[in-house]
Amino acid sequence: QVQVVESGGGLVQAGGSLRLSCTASGLPFDDYAMGWFRQAPGKEREGVSCISWSGGSTYYADSVKARFTISRDNAKKTLYLQMNSLKPEDTAMYYCVAAPARTDYGLTLMSLLADFGYWGQGTQVTVSS
Fold first, then answer.
1. Which DSSP letter does residue 27 get?
2. Residue 9: which of 34, 45, 29, 36 has the closest Cα?
3. N or C: which end of the chain has fewer CB within 10 A?
4. How open is the CA angle 70-76-82, to the nearest 5 degrees?
5. Based on the number of CB atoms within 10 Å of its own CB, is 7 exposed (0-12), middle (13-18) or buried (19 or more)?
6. DSSP string, 31-76
7. What digits encode the pLDDT tens for the residues 25-63?
8. pLDDT per residue over 53-107, tens digit each?
9. Is 85 helix (H, G, I), strand (E, B) or coil?
10. Which of left, alpha, beta for 122 (phi over 0: left; psi -120 to 50: alpha)?
11. Minimal CA–CA distance to 70: which of 88, 93, 99, 47?
């Protein structure tokens, strides 16, 4: 049984930092691409960032580029999202997704994650102004 579990969300002031973590069990983590999506109330879901199965390729949405960093530790079967310089518009539920995708092309990978991935329950990030 595949389980994807996020943690690390919380309330932070604008300009602050948070690190989200995601563990995935029941699947060969080393062979899976991973990503983060977010959705704010009343807004469409947004692909935030993803990382290829090898860790050699990453993608960031323009809205988070240079502020967020995605990484993975295959030994710990854990995905991370370091979020710096947080803004109120980063407030959303953040979801971790895992998919058996082999492409290194970021936009394609985000699409594959969205359509074929295993999703976690989400962790709430709230940034106060």
1. S
2. 36
3. N
4. 25
5. middle
6. G-EEEEEEE-TTS--EEEEEE-TTSS-EEE-TTTTTTEEEEEETTT
7. 999 999 999 999 999 999 999 999 999 999 999 999 999
8. 999 999 999 999 999 999 999 999 999 999 999 999 999 999 999 999 888 888 8
9. coil
10. left
11. 47
Q: What is the DSSP string of 67-113?
A: TEEEEEETTTTEEEEEE-S--GGG-EEEEEEEE------HHHHHHHH
CA distances from 7 to 51, 107, 115, 128 (A): 18, 25, 23, 19
Residue 106 per-residue DSSP state: H
* Block residue for tokens 């579990």: 5
Distance CA 29, CA 75 (A): 9
Sole residue written with tokens 């060969």: 28
Which pLDDT value is given to residue 103?
Answer: 85
Q: Residue 102: what pLDDT?
A: 87
